[in-house]
């Protein structure tokens, strides 16, 4: 997958949190690449480490409480080796981040204009007037109808969808190469979700940015993503193009996820449920397939002892060999090793 | 914002009326009558009845209340029994002393508390934070008058740095000397008051800073590439000040209430000392007037808090 156009190369990144004096991996050995003009979706259920990955790339973790290893190569610079000052050259300027909860992600005491132009204060030499014009232009671009008025308002005067647009405006103000969108539509209702995704796609076309879209909503992924990485319990279990992952899913977890989505043609059937939970950080098994406890009917021999990624098609990788033997309990045929 | 202030001010009017009725009725409920002690004890009870009658003391309570209010608006709060002086004049001079001390204490309190609170919150868990926390806990545990007594003993008697009584030395002449002497007299009570007053503010501010530090908007600011120093200055500080601002108006009244202790321990001739003395001498007119003044000051304090809050927090301005 390594080509010249990968401007973001995440190599073997692990992030461990300190809990009661001990470090536990929240994400382990993540390898990912992002290209310009591409939307990479990271999918997984709550607690699988999606957001941790995002905040690791942004360098938002407290170094006293976390241990990060690996390399985040951004256009030739290893971000993880930067100090706070060096990181600030990238944050906001070359990497923009869109947060999950638009209700709390804006400072309640500052006007919208101040909050958008703040990012330009640190990364551009624009005059006050140019900044103001840029703010209006950005608000227009994210689809706010009356930008002059909105610029003067406080966050509490805006609806959730408008606040999320403002946050997107902040993230794209300096035309970053990479936009990390951490569940940008989770807090919004469905009609607004679609609009926000449209805004994101338009911006990407305009700026040729690469987008990492973090979500647990497979519908959003199917609609927007070029490539998909499926995460489970801190690991990537499957990645490939959107067609590969949606049309020929291989890993049992991906297949279970897709099967648990409501479908129009079987709306009378019960939904498939993945039994159990993602293990908590302290209880994460050190060895074996982390998804194995949730598919107990698959014999232990089917899993690798230290599951690695296997290429099943060009650009399509799956963790662990168990996918070869996986069938749902109600499917025809018996499980053999 | 002016609407908010005006509205808030209008709400205060019925509050003051209710307060004045309560104070008046409580004063009426106090035992005794105003003449028994002030005229010849051998006087004919019929004579006292006559005096009561011509002074309107047999009128229904609302009639008496109305007379009292009319007098109040003419600045007439009656005469003090103890000092044989109009209450307004008696309180007037002392109110200035109290205000002077309260203002000084408040400035000192915030001058100490704001840097300490922000520093402790920012460097949470480090040694200076621990020292500040221990200081606040210890001070919080000691009753205020004990702090005053210990302070006066160490700095007033043992070290002899500060005067221990009064508001001005008797030989003060000239503008500068008078001012200096007044300042010298409020220095120790002000410092001790501030020492005690900082505790709440430091604790509040510290936990607010810690909360803000982990808030989503601070994370947004960090993802914009704002340096940590500016994040504190532009984002955390102002948000953390909200509860302190809400507190500020009340803390003015708190200081006036605290002045009762301070002035008694320092024999400082202010409203607090007058209040304590009036209670021990059953000087009813003075007590009534002071209770009313303290009550109104409390209302003004809450009004101030609301106004300050509406200035700093756009969310609570009424449109």
Automatic annotation (TrEMBL), chain A:
NCBIfam families, per the entry: oligo_HPY (TIGR01727)
Keywords, sorted A to Z: ATP-binding, Cell membrane, Membrane, Nucleotide-binding, Transport
InterPro entries the UniProt entry points to: AAA+_ATPase, ABC_Ni/Peptide_Import, ABC_transporter-like_ATP-bd, ABC_transporter-like_CS, Oligopep_ABC_C, P-loop_NTPase
Major subcellular site: membrane
BP terms from Gene Ontology: peptide transport
Transmembrane regions listed in the UniProt entry: none
Family: Belongs to the ABC transporter superfamily.
Coiled coil stretches, renumbered: none
Cellular component annotations (GO), alphabetically ordered: plasma membrane
Span of domain ABC transporter: 8-258
Compartment list: Cell membrane
Membrane topology: Peripheral membrane protein
Protein name as it appears in the record: ABC-type dipeptide oligopeptide nickel transport system, ATPase component
PANTHER family assigned: DIPEPTIDE TRANSPORT ATP-BINDING PROTEIN DPPD (PTHR43297:SF2), OLIGOPEPTIDE TRANSPORT ATP-BINDING PROTEIN APPD (PTHR43297)
Gene Ontology molecular function terms on file: ATP binding; ATP hydrolysis activity
Automatic annotation (TrEMBL), chain B:
Main subcellular localisation: membrane
Gene3D superfamilies to which the protein is assigned, alphabetical: MetI-like
Locations listed in the record: Cell membrane
Transmembrane segment boundaries: 9-27, 99-122, 134-162, 182-205, 241-266, 286-312
Keywords, ordered alphabetically: Cell membrane, Membrane, Transmembrane, Transmembrane helix, Transport
Pfam families reported for this sequence: BPD_transp_1, BPD_transp_1_N
Record membrane topology: Multi-pass membrane protein
Family: Belongs to the binding-protein-dependent transport system permease family.
Name of the protein in question: ABC transporter permease
